[in-house]
Specification:
This protein is α/β, with parallel strands linked by helices and about 280 residues long. The chain folds into 2 domains: about 140 residues, Heat Shock Protein 90; about 120 residues, Rossmann fold (3-Layer(aba) Sandwich). Helices cover about 30% and strands about 25% of the residues. The strands form 2 sheets. A 5-stranded mixed beta sheet has the order 1-2-3-6-5. The chain has a 5-stranded parallel beta sheet with strand order 8-7-9-10-11, with helices on both faces. Helix 1 runs antiparallel to helix 4. The longest helix is centred in the first third of the chain and has 19 residues. It is globular.
Length: about 280
């Protein structure tokens, strides 16, 4: 089984980009990494950082070789999969190219096109048996080459996102961050409970799937509310006929969205909760 490990930097400089296209890059790279792991499983690591990029790395990129050395916002997706030989690595961005050693090869040609359209660079490193690492380099906006200072305003609410479908969990967490919330991901009820137990006061809202292997969403919600009775929970599910969804209409600290949901609906729910959270209600 593939597992996601995330190391995301705070207060990165702003970049210019299309959020939906950048999310597509992440999904395509994570899908490709999962395919490369195959049945053996292993870790897929996602990281963000602000780095000083040397001319040598830019010269070795698949695109963006003409960019100047300097500070870039970097997204890294790496895996522990089979890796690729140089001959395979040279062709992974060809449309329709596929090989069992590079997974299905889905979306890599599209990834390259999106990176080019954003004026960025893409570096790939891979060795047979040693996995692969994709590094997306995006230039910060002018006068944004240093990380933003720590926020001195009110604290951001932190949302625990729980879904056994890892791509859904990843996209939801990134959507929340784009809405200026903090987000922490868990891929099972058991994992979410352990994360929550470690620091119940950290979490303001929880978003959770109803149907998950092992501990389901309603059981998890009951256990979380033992630790934090007033916890606000947003239930997400594709199973609209679940018998217990009726109780949501009688509890102002519960809400429900049908998957797939729209950003506008999520903003509507969380904006009301955020206002109540700020006022202490």
């Amino acid at each position: 089984m593939a597992r996601l490990e995330m190391q995301l930097a705070a207060h990165l400089p702003a970049i210019s980009g299309d959020a939906s296209q950048l999310r597509q890059i992440v999904l395509n790279l994570v899908t490709n990494a999962s395919d490369a792991l195959g049945d053996e499983g292993g870790a897929i690591r996602i990281g963000t950082a602000l780095e000083s990029i040397a001319p040598e790395e830019l010269a070795a990129c698949a695109t963006g070789t003409e960019l100047p050395a300097g500070r870039y916002v970097v997204l890294t997706v790496s895996d522990e999969g089979r890796g690729m030989a140089p001959a395979t690595l040279a062709r992974i961005f060809d449309p329709f190219f596929t090989t069992k050693f590079a997974g299905r090869g889905l979306g890599l040609a599209a990834v390259l096109g999106i990176v080019r359209s954003h004026g960025g660079a893409l570096h790939v490193a891979s060795r047979p048996g040693r996995g692969s690492t994709f590094r997306l380099l995006l230039p910060p906006l002018p006068d944004q080459t240093e990380p933003a200072a720590s926020d001195t305003g009110p604290a951001k609410p932190t949302v625990l996102v729980v879904d056994d479908d890892e791509p859904v969990c990843l996209v939801t967490a990134e959507l929340l961050r784009s809405m200026q919330y903090e987000a922490v991901s868990a891929h099972s009820g058991e994992e979410a409970l352990e994360i929550f137990k470690a620091d119940p006061a950290r979490f303001t809202f929880v978003m959770l799937d109803v149907v998950m292997p092992g501990m389901g969403g309603f059981e998890l919600m009951a256990r979380l509310r033992v630790l934090q009775p007033d916890l606000r929970v947003l239930i997400m599910s594709g199973h609209t006929g679940h018998a217990r969804l009726d109780e949501i209409t009688t509890d102002p600290r519960l809400a429900y969205v049908t998957k797939p949901f729209h950003r506008a609906r999520l903003e509507e729910i969380l904006a009301g909760w955020f206002k109540a959270w700020r006022s202490g209600d």
